[in-house]
Write a structure and sequence with these properties.
Layout (H helix, E strand, L loop, with lengths): L2 E5 L10 E6 L9 H11 L3 E4 L4 H4 L9 H12 L3 E5 L7 H6 L26 H18 L5 E5 L14 H15 L2 H8 L26 H29 L5 E2 L1 E2 L9 H5 L6 E3 L10 H15 L5 E5 L18 H11 L2 E6 L25 H15 L6 E4 L2 E4 L2 H7 L11 H14 L4 E4 L10 E4 L7 H12 L3 E4 L22 H4 L1 E8 L5 E3 L5 E3 L1 E7 L19
Parallel strand pairs: 2-3, 2-10, 3-4, 4-5, 5-6, 7-8, 8-9, 9-10, 12-13, 12-14, 14-15
Antiparallel strand pairs: 1-11, 16-19, 17-18
The structure holds alpha-D-galactopyranose (GLA).
């Protein structure tokens, strides 16, 4: 269920579905490049992402730029009719940069400074990193604006994938600045953070730190604000690059690859409006017991929701095994096609892989590519080529805009607030609840969006809140107003219990939703691991029970056993 409303292709001037992957020619001798282009054409490749990790090859020494190789790659691709999603290459500074600016290296909550030697070794708040990144982007944009191969800009890579948060002194100062802008004065901050507890009251801004490793649990609101700040700092890095690109190459759309449904450290609602196109990566967790279709459906629904229902780009997925899970399973014959087409069915207009050629060296040498180590006479390359041909024939569906009438309510602040270590039960994991509820909707054949509780909800008929621990007053009022217009809301356990400062809403749970539901809860009774409770309607409860009474709600089932037997469930 879901309606296709209109056709709107996302990449200006290009039609059809895009097919291809990350192309890293700098890892290969130049004489292989023309053969790459020939093989890409044979496989139906129409777009590649170039240069994601090429900063060290583009600027081998401070201020010395070597664009010649990239010029030749861009020209070859243009001649082959293959569009380029050109990366700004800022995802990993070269070793010379990190050595010259040790204060740009990220620091973890234990105070350990992380080294260069893998990737993403920079503090998002570092002025030296931001200055060097902007200088590179300015050169790239000036040089390649208007290049016939250029289809879009790919800023950085998977923001927050390895370093979503940094606890260094530079970050601490930036955090204090962010807090001053948010709260204005220390009294308001002390109130919001509840610092009367455990002698935490702050009397000077300089006393405030990121939640570094402390003897016991950190202040929950300090932690939540630090997560919000960290997401904003990464967004500021993106915006700085985007604004440069928009100024220097105004006709080319700008995007970055999110990790929708895979990682939850960055508040993608605040990013979505700043991106010309929504792009995301997806890698299912491979296990014989996991249905990868469930994971793909959730990630695709989230990507489409971030895009406001419009088409989005699958910037990366794998042709077969990845290299970073405990056991990296190869895809069985047909699985590549099924999974790629599943993304298409959820609204993707581009299917791109990581990466074109499987690398012989480096940390990802055991990651699959479109062109495997064994060459083109392989299962993977045959399946890639077959899919490329198939997508060319499916081009007419590109630009479809899908409207769902059901949505799951999602607020990153709520997820982060519930991540605090001192919760009633570690089993009530919000992402796990999203996955379980989403899977049930998928089984019922219902296409579902994600929506922020404060967003315009008028298009939906059914809203579900599997895990909305934190809800703002504005969000709660928005939902109540929508219900008053005739909408049906399904609210999960332990939702609405804290306000936007993660402070408990007093007077009985579920706080913000007490009146809306006609339910009053006085105490939570989480279950032990593996424990269950019988309900009078024959179903079985796991994870969670609560001591509740109806205040206007119709009771459909009660607990049939356990300490709450006879009480409404
Ligand atoms: C991420 C990164 C890629 C690559 C793949 C491997 O998506 O963006 O550079 O490391 O993972 O799965």
């Amino acid at each position: 269920m879901g309606t296709i409303l209109a056709m709107m292709f996302p990449i200006p001037g290009r039609r059809g579905l895009a097919f291809g992957g990350d192309y890293n020619p700098e890892q290969w001798p130049e004489h292989t490049w023309p053969a790459d282009i020939e093989l890409m054409r044979a496989a139906g490749v129409t777009m590649v992402t170039v240069g994601v990790f090429s900063w060290a090859m583009l600027e081998p020494a401070p201020g010395r730029y070597t664009f010649g190789w990239l010029d030749r790659v861009m020209d070859l691709l243009a001649a082959g009719g293959i569009a380029v999603d050109l990366a700004t290459a800022t995802a990993t500074p070269p070793p010379w940069f990190s050595r010259a600016h040790p204060d740009s290296l990220p620091v973890d909550a234990d105070g350990r400074r992380l080294s260069w030697g893998s990737r993403q070794a920079y503090c998002p708040s570092s002025p030296s990193y931001r200055t060097a990144a902007s200088a590179l982007v300015e050169r790239l944009a000036t040089r390649y604006a208007g290049h016939p191969a250029l289809a879009m800009w790919h800023v950085n890579n998977e923001y927050g994938c390895h370093v979503a948060r940094c606890w260094c002194d530079v970050s601490a100062a930036a955090f204090r600045g962010w807090l001053e802008r948010r709260y204005g004065d220390l009294g308001t901050l002390n109130e919001a953070w509840g610092t009367a507890f455990w002698s935490q009251r702050y009397s000077d801004w300089r006393e405030i730190l990121p939640p570094r490793h402390t003897p016991s649990f950190p202040n929950p609101t300090q932690q939540l604000d630090f997560f919000r700040f960290s997401s904003d700092e990464l967004l500021a890095c993106y915006l700085a690059e985007r604004d440069l690109l928009r100024r220097l190459a105004p006709s080319t759309p700008v995007t970055t690859n999110l990790m929708a449904g895979l990682a939850w450290e960055v508040d993608y609602w605040s990013w979505a409006g700043e991106m010309d196109l929504i792009a995301t990566d997806h890698y299912p967790v491979a296990a014989r017991t996991h249905d990868t279709g469930v994971q793909i459906a959730l990630a695709g629904d989230l990507a489409r929701s971030l895009a406001g229902g419009r088409p989005w780009l699958l910037m990366e997925h794998a042709t077969s095994a990845v290299n970073w899970q405990p056991r990296n399973l190869a895809k069985v014959p047909g699985q590549l096609r099924r999974e790629s087409l599943s993304h298409l069915a959820r609204g993707a207009d581009a299917l791109l892989y990581f990466q074109w050629r499987a690398s012989p060296a480096g940390a990802e040498q055991w990651h699959s590519g479109m062109l495997p180590h064994a060459g083109p006479e392989t299962k993977v390359f045959r399946e890639v080529s077959a899919l490329g041909g198939e997508l060319a024939a499916l081009g007419e569906i590109s630009g479809s805009v899908l409207r769902a009438d059901t949505a799951i309510l999602l607020d990153w602040s709520s997820l982060w607030a519930q991540e605090h270590a001192c919760q009633p039960s570690i089993d009530l994991r919000p992402v796990g609840l999203f996955e379980a509820w989403h899977a049930a909707l998928r089984t019922a054949g219902i296409v579902v969006d994600f929506a922020h509780p404060e967003a315009d909800l008028s298009r939906y008929r059914l809203l579900l809140a599997p895990a909305l621990y934190l809800v703002s007053d504005a969000g709660a009022a928005n939902l109540a107003a929508w219900v008053a217009t005739g909408g049906t809301a399904v609210i999960g356990p332990f939702s609405g219990v804290v306000n936007e400062h993660a402070q408990v809403r007093l007077g009985g749970y579920p706080g913000a939703f007490r009146d809306l539901l006609g339910v009053w809860v006085e105490e939570h009774f989480p279950l032990l691991d593996g424990e269950s409770v019988a309900l009078t309607d024959g179903s079985t409860g796991r994870l969670w029970t609560e001591l509740a009474e109806s205040r206007g709600a119709e009771v459909l089932a009660a607990y049939a056993d356990g300490p709450l037997a006879g009480r409404p469930a």
